Amino acid sequence: MTNKITSMAEYYQKYQESVANPEAFWAEIAESSFWRKKWDKVLDWRFDGPGAPMVNWFVNGKLNITENIFERNMFTRKDQVAIIWEPNDPKEKEVRLTYGELFDKVKEFANGLLKLGVKKGDRVAIYLPMVPELAVAMLACARIGAIHSIVFAGFSATALADRINDASANVLITSDGGFRGSKKIPLKDIADEALESCPTVEHNIVLKRTEQDVKWTEGRDKWWHDVIEGVGIDNEAEVMDSEDTLFILYTSGSTGKPKGVVHTTAGYMVFSEYTFKNVFQYNDGDVFWCTADIGWVTGHSYIVYGPLLAGATSVMFEGVPTWPDAGRFWEIVAKYKVNQFYTAPTAIRALIAQGNEWVTKHDLSSLSVLGTVGEPINEEAWRWYHDLIGGGKCPIVDTWWQTETGGIMITPLAGITPTKPSLATLPLPGVQPILVDPEGNELKGNGVEGILCIKFPWPGMLRSLYGDHKRCHETYFSMFKGLYLTGDGAKRDEEGYYRIIGRIDDVINVSGHRIGTAEVEDAINQHPKVNESAVVGYPHEIKGSGIYAYVICEDLSEDEMGTIENEIKATVTKFIGPIAKPDKIQIVSGLPKTRSGKIMRRILRKIGEGDATNLGDTSTLLDPGVVEEIITGAKVEVKR
Ligand code: PRX
Questions:
Q1: Residue of 259, 514, 515 to mutate, ligand 1, most atoms within 8 A of C-beta
Q2: Residue of 377, 423, 509, 579 to test ligand 1 pocket, by largest number of atoms within 8 Å of CB
Q3: How do the domains of the chain map onto residue ranges?
Q4: What does residue 74 show for φ and ψ, rounded to 5 degrees?
Q5: Percent of the chain with pLDDT over 70
Q6: Inter-residue contact 316 to 303 (CB < 8 Å)
Q7: Where does the pLDDT of residue 255 fall: very low under 50, low under 70, confident under 90, or very high at 90 and above?
Q8: Are the beta carbons of 149 and 172 closer than 8 angstroms?
């Protein structure tokens, strides 16, 4: 496999080269892709100035990402398994799709989309469970140049509608329902509710999965199997420009409105393949399993695009780690002899709590590399993962990256970079991190802590926020001129290794998923009895961070006092989805506000953490008495 670093000496050499001449470094990597027409210039960029950010990689190159997955791999991998799909219910048979079979399905569905009149540049929203057709749908969009916008199937009707409308999608792809552990999720019903307020959607393509009854809107709704009826598998890929948009993926920010992160074709393609091969040190014939949902960026880059571009065999799992029992992950590892296993610290912590016997009864000897993503991994979880799951012999790659970065940025190279628990270690060649103080001064040398930024473009970076380029500049490029702001704090230790500390903005990392506090507040405030709310994160044993909501309600009766917490949770579930449900709700009579009306979240965060010993300067508060009341009524034990 080309473009793979195999030693630390080579890592340092490549790193130096990538900083000294980034264009030459990336051009060499991009050479191994399949181009309809090579680029004229490797990179054109500015983070500031008119129209910024402007980042163009492989300028004027022409290609299609699916030709790089299929046509490029077809001579050698036609009969190799591309996707192994493990159903929710272990009693149902798995599906193995070879590159040849997957290619045919992608071309067929692409033809179905074309038959409906879907064109290059159209936005196609996808709201599907973790079934092979999810991968088929996204690749079919890429094949014809339509822009996919995948919405995690745990989001509510309102959240789905917001995302469809923000992108003015004209097609939705969903299913009758989805299986999740012992539950059936009525996805079509949720989609129907969303579509009531989505005037741009002309076609709703419905896959049969659970066979449950669904309501039908003639004209708009079409069964997946009817869409592909008779269309055949002859399909020429649409020729895309390097900078044509490949997909939009929504993520939370500091305001209530989710951001549609825009990724483009060539840069994302080159970056996802390069990071996949190097970080996991994938070898031909290995079986790779990333447990994420494709609804999140991790699934986009490391279930579908990265592995398939690299010609890997990628496992896709429909279910949950604890059903039918807490040994499910390890049963699957043993069943498919998984070599590289990539999951989130929150899943590891949840499984630790279930006991070791669920692990030890399965044969995990195939494992050679373990990975984590999405949040800092605490040392205890790291040790359990390393010692019990990896049998002490598998390197752990703690990979730091974001929806916006498109792929892994700071990480060990498996088996090459010496690791330390809880440290993401070193930047990949081609990635230039920098730590700055709040004034934007660079913190040089080792043994420093600051705000993590990136000072040079990398191919996988976001190009815009859909429909709001100005917001993209404001969010990521305006705080420190000339730098991409990650929103994370980090430490660089004495050896130059990075430890990610966590978000510096109003975003909470709940079970590795980003939830904006403003988004949760907006949802809580929809409850008719709620006047105001303030949401902060607090340390949570399993989830990493939990959601703590301080809520002001208008005159509640005693009965209402008894039900309000559940009602608030239900409201959040309705407006966002169960992932954003507050773990703790405290009804308060006031919030700590400055005289100018700004909520001092710092104080609420400290109380949520159970520490009122050092609340800092509270003299600017309008009513300092309110703090005392909040401490007394806190849902955690608070040290004073
Ligand atoms: O705070 C960092 C955390 O997750 C954020 C990105 O979230 P999202 O865009 O949803 O993507 C998650 C999967 C890539 C980051 O800003 N994060 C991600 N990886 C790590 C991490 N925090 C610590 N260590 C990591 N390895």
A1: 514
A2: 509
A3: 8-320+399-484, 508-632
A4: -65, -35
A5: 100
A6: yes
A7: confident
A8: no
Asked whether the CA dihedral 477, 422, 262, 180 is positive or negative, the reply is: negative
> Cα(409) to centroid of ligand 1, in Å?
10
The atom number, within ligand 1, closest to the CA of 408 reads: 14
Helices then strands, counting H and E runs in the chain, come out as 21, 30
Give the whole-angstrom CA distance, residue 410 versus residue 501: 13
72 secondary structure, DSSP code: G
Q: Is the dihedral of CA 153, 157, 159, 163 positive or negative?
A: positive
Checking if the pLDDT of 499 tops 70, the result is yes
424 touches ligand 1 (CB under 6 Å) = yes
Please choose, from the candidates 337, 278, 343, the residue with its C-alpha nearest in 3D space to the C-alpha of residue 309.
Answer: 278
Site of tokens 């660089």? 492
Distance of alpha carbon 416 from alpha carbon 537, whole angstroms:
35
What are 65-78's pLDDT values in tens digits? 999 999 998 889 99
The correct answer on CATH 3.40.50.12780 for the domain covering 8-320+399-484 is yes
- By most ligand atoms within 8 Å of CB, the mutation choice from 263, 302, 375 for ligand 1 is 375
Residue 295, ligand 1, Cβ within 6 A:
no
Pull the structure tokens for residue 341.
Answer: 């296993």
Output DSSP code: residue 192.
Answer: H
Q: Let me know how long the chain is.
A: 640
Using a 6 Å cutoff on CB, does residue 301 contact ligand 1?
Answer: no
Angstrom distance (rounded) from CA 475 to CA 554: 35
Centre of ligand 1 to C-alpha 11, Å, is: 23
**Residues 375-400: pLDDT tens digits?**
999 999 999 999 999 999 999 999 99
Provide the 10 A C-beta neighbour count for residue 79: 9
pLDDT tens digits, 276-320: 999 999 999 999 999 999 999 999 999 999 999 999 999 999 999
Token pair in block for residue 612:
């009122």
> What is the 626 CA–ligand 1 centroid distance (Å)?
34
CB 523 within 8 A of CB 535: no
Whether residue 1 has pLDDT greater than 60: no
Per-residue pLDDT band for 3 (boundaries 50, 70, 90) equals: confident
Whether 178 lines ligand 1, by a CB cut-off of 6 Å, is no
Contacts of 7 (CB under 8 A, 6+ apart): 416
Q: Return the CATH superfamily for domain 508-632.
A: ANL, C-terminal domain (3.30.300.30)
Mean pLDDT of 522-551: 96
